[in-house]
Amino acid sequence: MIKRYIESSLSKRLNDSKALIILGPRQAGKSTLLRNMTPSFIAPITWWNGDDADIRTMLISPNSSLLRSLLGKTKTLIIDEAQRIENIGLVIKIIIDQIPDIKVIATGSSSFELANRINEPLTGRKWEYHLYPFSFEELANNTGFLEEMRLMPLQLIYGTYPEIINNPGEEEARLKQLADSYLYKDILTWERIQKPDKMERLVQALAFQIGSEVSYNELAQLTGLDNETIEKYIHLLEKAFIVFRLGSLSRNLRNELKKSRKFYFYDNGLRNAVINQFSPASLRQDIGALWENYLISERTKFLAYHEINCNRYFWRTHAQQEIDYIEERNGKMTAFEFKWSPKARHKFSSTFLSAYPDTDTKVITPENYVDFLR
Known about the structure:
Helices cover 40% and strands 17% of the residues. Helix 16 (350-355) links the parallel strand 10 and strand 11 (360-364). It is α/β, with parallel strands linked by helices. The longest helix is centred in the last third of the chain and has 19 residues, at 287-305.
């Protein structure tokens, strides 16, 4: 059993009055994590699943009397796929404020904002965590760092969803099923998107542009959507933990790109499933983009699990000078370049170093990436 990094943090929060909210992509292992933690929960335990229509119907108009009758002697309430319950924020708020001694633990495969038609904030009433597909660190703690380094080329192609890691030899079929069955489920449920085929085309366009500056005008030409709709759809894809963005660093130079953005997938395997490309790393023409997506998505997991707050950017000028990835923490910047070939030489832009002279610089390759991910 692969131990999830956030389990120890969750365990420390079981005895206070705040709700535990665990967000992350569908099939990332949220339900499995809670089942494994069940011996730590105070009984009686009640499980609700937002995918069940009867649960959603019962909670359409929540009030304290209704919730008291439904919960009875419950001491621990687990709400799985809570984002599918309309006004879930109000449900949790009523329980916390008016029904004492019940610990609420809710999971969601999209931000609850998609479900909260009544915007009921849980400020001060929750601890929020993110759970992603297995991280490099979680896998390495289970199998050893040398084994994970050996498997890394496979993970560049197939990613690290638990179902993929636990079923070697069936990666392509399971990834296609994951992409077809779960990718847009929450978005289509709540937003009633009229053109799902164009949403799919947009996701494919983003998949082909990982590691590159994304132009909404270009996406509009590829998808047949206007810029405003593209921005809306991408916002939904971010809320559903399918993609995330990096903005551009712009402070000192007139020719820095000021409103540019890059998009990455939370999982390489899902990205490759969207475009149906599973050829091995040694044959990939897009290996540089795959390597960049893998490193930045894994770094995202590392920062979240270790509760490290920092600003993150890429950097580019109109003259095409660029840096792949920048972190700024406590006023100190570190610039990273990602190179698939360990023999590749790289010289950081003198323009950038002159504008940001105290920045540390690092080149990350397959020979030293482990230190970047732990």
